[in-house]
Amino acid sequence: MFRRAVLHILLSSFLFLSLLSLSDCHVPPARTMSHGARPMPNKVSNIAAEVAGYTGVAKQIIDLAVFGVAQNRSYRRLADFTDTVGNRVSGSHNLDRAIKYMYSAMTKDGLDVHLEPVKIPHWVRGKESAEMIVPRAKNLAILGLGSSVGTPPDGIQAEVLVVKSFEELKQRASDAEGKIVVFNQPFVSYGETVAYREYGASEAAKVGAVATLIRSITPLSINSPHTGWQDYQEGVKQIPTACITIEDAELMWRIAQRGQKIVVKLTMGARTLPDVDSFNTVAEIKGWQHPEQVVLLSGHLDSWDVGQGAMDDGGGAMISWEALSLIKDLGLRPRRTLRTVLWTAEEQGGIGAQQYYNFHKGNLSNFDLIMESDMGTFRQWLCSSPALTQQKRSWRKWLNYWPPLIQPNWRGAQKGRISHCG
Ligand SMILES: [Zn+2]
């Protein structure tokens, strides 16, 4: 199936990147990978020749993943994991189960596994609903946003102010007092438009709003609200905030444009409980030549509570595991340590990754490459990194060395932003 094939393609790119980094030693190597190529001095001009020396090894890995006994394995692992554990929001019992599941599965797989402790937020959604009461009765599909406060038990009933942007909210600030502000911002891109989900509640609270309903951050909708994290600004009153569907945001905007009054009743049982103990799950294959140096692959184990988290980010977690499995299955020994980290509480603002950084920042120069897959495991379309943006030429050159099967397609690249490829 397409999905399975591309899982393996992305997986192969993980592995190939690992090989590249492994072959680019900090000191001239005495020998290369145990199945490896000829020794090469560590000069940029020799990278192409050195990479070519790994063609056979890369083919072995790709063949095992795409055509061999490991064919579809990462897909089966993903299906078993998500079917067994289900959703795994930060602080939940299910996230604990997910960590135990992966610890046990990767240990059984023969990898060297350990856990690193992290304190993580525990937000619970509770029951939630919204209804438009005036000018007519209509249920609104909503999803409260992570970290939102709840409403009083009887809900909040208030007139609605619909705006399309933060600028419009500022211009109409005097109309916002005591109202539920509905943001009907058009979708530009996730990176740009998500500001409304993250900061909409605080911006509306600054002008006296009692709650916010925010158009879901997506270009497509089948009356489907999205959730995600939001941030309250310090010193600003915390008001309940939820996403609504594109359809309902547009509906209320059209009604408002006609000068009609809109009244909505919003009820949310959301609460933030004390932080809980959790873990980043770490598995690795020690490098034979530079065990202290690390190539890190990652995905996150937590998800939101209203789905299975198969693509966000079960897929990223599984290919990060599978990469190590394939290297192990082939009996390859990397020069540097290949490490997979499955983050906890990524959706709450990268809490697990931040804690990992805090633990390891004294040792940063030993990390040669750090990758996270968290945009779905379909065809590759995005590689981004501030470091890559600074080193446009070498990055593009480097990508040209990838095997044809996993060559990125530059058509999707944003103009002038070499850090993005597709
Ligand atoms: Zn994610």
From TrEMBL:
<feature type="signal peptide">
    <location>
        <begin position="1"/>
        <end position="25"/>
    </location>
</feature>
<keyword id="KW-0121">Carboxypeptidase</keyword>
<dbReference type="Pfam" id="PF04389">
    <property type="entry name" value="Peptidase_M28"/>
</dbReference>
<dbReference type="GO" id="GO:0043171">
    <property type="term" value="P:peptide catabolic process"/>
</dbReference>
<dbReference type="GO" id="GO:0046872">
    <property type="term" value="F:metal ion binding"/>
</dbReference>
<dbReference type="GO" id="GO:0005764">
    <property type="term" value="C:lysosome"/>
</dbReference>
<keyword id="KW-0458">Lysosome</keyword>
<comment type="subunit">
    <text>Homodimer. The monomeric form is inactive while the homodimer is active.</text>
</comment>
<dbReference type="InterPro" id="IPR007484">
    <property type="entry name" value="Peptidase_M28"/>
</dbReference>
<keyword id="KW-0964">Secreted</keyword>
<feature type="domain" description="Peptidase M28">
    <location>
        <begin position="280"/>
        <end position="378"/>
    </location>
</feature>
<keyword id="KW-0378">Hydrolase</keyword>
<keyword id="KW-0256">Endoplasmic reticulum</keyword>
<dbReference type="GO" id="GO:0006508">
    <property type="term" value="P:proteolysis"/>
</dbReference>
<keyword id="KW-0865">Zymogen</keyword>
<comment type="similarity">
    <text>Belongs to the peptidase M28 family.</text>
</comment>
<keyword id="KW-0479">Metal-binding</keyword>
<dbReference type="GO" id="GO:0005615">
    <property type="term" value="C:extracellular space"/>
</dbReference>
<dbReference type="GO" id="GO:0005783">
    <property type="term" value="C:endoplasmic reticulum"/>
</dbReference>
<dbReference type="GO" id="GO:0070573">
    <property type="term" value="F:metallodipeptidase activity"/>
</dbReference>
<protein>
    <recommendedName>
        <fullName>Carboxypeptidase Q</fullName>
    </recommendedName>
</protein>
<keyword id="KW-0333">Golgi apparatus</keyword>
<keyword id="KW-0325">Glycoprotein</keyword>
<keyword id="KW-0645">Protease</keyword>
<dbReference type="InterPro" id="IPR039866">
    <property type="entry name" value="CPQ"/>
</dbReference>
<dbReference type="GO" id="GO:0004180">
    <property type="term" value="F:carboxypeptidase activity"/>
</dbReference>
<dbReference type="GO" id="GO:0005794">
    <property type="term" value="C:Golgi apparatus"/>
</dbReference>
<keyword id="KW-0862">Zinc</keyword>
<keyword id="KW-0482">Metalloprotease</keyword>
<keyword id="KW-0732">Signal</keyword>
